[in-house]
Amino acid sequence: MHILMLSTMYPTRAEAHSGIFVLKLAQALVQIGHSVQVIAPIPATPWPVSRISQRYALLSQQPIYEVYQGVPAHFPRYVVLPRRLVPRLAHYSATRSVVPLAQRLHTMDPFDVIHLYTAHPLGKAAGVLSKAWNVPYVVHLQGNSFRSCLGHGKWLSELVRRALLDSTLVVGVGSPLVNLAASVAGPSGPPTVVINYGVNPEDVILGDPGSMSCRRTGKRILLTVANLTRSKGIDVALRAFASVKDRFPDLHYVIVGAGEEEKALKGLAAALDTGDRVSFEGAQTHKRVMHHMSAADVFVLVSSNEGFGVVYVEAMGHGLPVIGSLGEGIGDVIVDGHNGMLVPPGNVPALVAALTRLLADPALAGRLGATARTEVLRNHTWAKVAERWTSAYEEALARYHSGQPHAPNRHPS
What is the pLDDT of residues 127-179, one digit of tens each? Predict the structure, then answer.
């Protein structure tokens, strides 16, 4: 099967970890015999825009085309201001940059199916190409991006709804997300399927990773890996850490990631008198993240509006006891008290209680981590995910070419 992936999230020279899940799925699909091409439009950064920041400078150096880790990827430029502020500009500019390129690629080697990541700003392009080629497109919803589009005005909300209705199948990374998509599309919408993210077993690093900034002799490591944004709940984790740090003097909190809330979070850590027991490690490569997980003892991420969160299953694959958010997408994988713990996002006392249980009972932490690792490596590898996506593509092709109307929404396991 020849698959076209459309995504504004993909690893680049400016952001090596952005959209890593797109790359991982593409690689897994290639491994089982499919061919994949990725079109990942990036912001245009002509001079003097390229001088504004290091990110823009690196984006300006991104090749238009490269084969990265075995996957061919194209990076056309499009004009974009903050997408939620000027959605029409992103919508039209992305369409104009993607459609001609995709048409040329299709002429050389026709695509069988279009895999669209999120519904904006590439939904229009997917619809145009689907009709021109007479092939289905499948919408893949990640979480926060989808929800934020729905909350930014009637025009953008309707654009997203239309992208769902015109698709043949909607896939969400977690159950809460497909429930929301079904409610937005209504009874005439396409069927919905849940396919979670995965982990590559070969990415898991076991044993002592050697000399690392986060390895502190005689210390236990509490770890968070996330973009430093409000929705990630890192302020909640900091407050919980401050509440337990005196009872567990060997505990050190390591935060890996960067973002707009970094200054505020560092200020909060100082105000909570955490001293040198909280480390902000900044953005890291995927391999370095895996090393941090290998060095950790407990993983915590109590985010809200989280579609799924691939870092959860990566941490579970490392055998870590994981504390995640109740009612979010990770609830498809974590069963509270069986292979991890779930607490309500924003609830500091609940997180304090969960942390205290794990830190005070190493045997419990060990059992949860061991169960998590076994189940993730059995059921939630990228190879398993690629098999589920193959079934989804086959269903979309069968429905599209049989002319079936949209079936009632469903949520298979």
Answer: 999 999 999 999 999 877 788 788 778 988 999 999 999 999 999 999 999 99
Q: For residue 216, what pLDDT is reported? A: 53
Domain that holds residue 246: 201-379
Task: Reply yes or no on whether the pLDDT at 53 is more than 90.
Answer: no
- Prior bond of 121 cis (ω within 30°): yes
d(CA 256, CA 266): 13
DSSP secondary structure of 267-307: HHHHHTT-GGGEEEEE---HHHHHHHHHH-SEEE---SS-S
Distance of alpha carbon 56 from alpha carbon 25, whole angstroms? 27
Burial of 407 (0-12, 13-18, 19+ CB in 10 A): exposed
Q: Which residues pair with 26 in a beta bridge?
A: none
- Give me 271's structure tokens: 């105000």
Q: Which residues contact 133 (CB under 8 A, 6 or more apart)?
A: 106, 110, 111
Kind plus residue range of the DSSP H or E element containing 35: strand 35-39
111 and 211 share one domain:
no
pLDDT value at 15 more than 60: yes
What is the residue whose two structure tokens read 């399927």?
Answer: 193
- Is the domain of 317 the same as that of 394? no
Place of tokens 């069986």: 338
Q: Cis ω on the peptide bond leading into residue 63 (within 30° of 0)? A: no
**φ/ψ bin of 319: left (φ > 0), alpha (ψ from -120 to 50), beta (otherwise):** left
Count Cβ atoms below 10 Å from residue 97 Cβ, excluding itself. 23
**Number of domains within the chain:** 2
Q: Do 194 and 243 fall into the same domain? A: no
Same domain, 191 and 293: no
Q: What is the pLDDT of residues 210-248, one digit of tens each?
A: 434 445 567 999 999 999 999 999 999 999 999 999 999
- Sheet bearing 65-68, strands edge to edge: 65-68, 71-74, 35-39, 2-6, 113-117, 137-141, 169-172, 192-194
Taking CA atoms, 371 is separated from 23, 324, 336, 399, in Å, by 27, 16, 12, 38
Using DSSP's 3-state secondary structure scheme, residue 115 falls into: strand
Stated as kind and residue range, the H or E segment containing 62 is none
Helix extents (H) in 109-258: 123-133, 144-150, 154-166, 175-185, 234-244
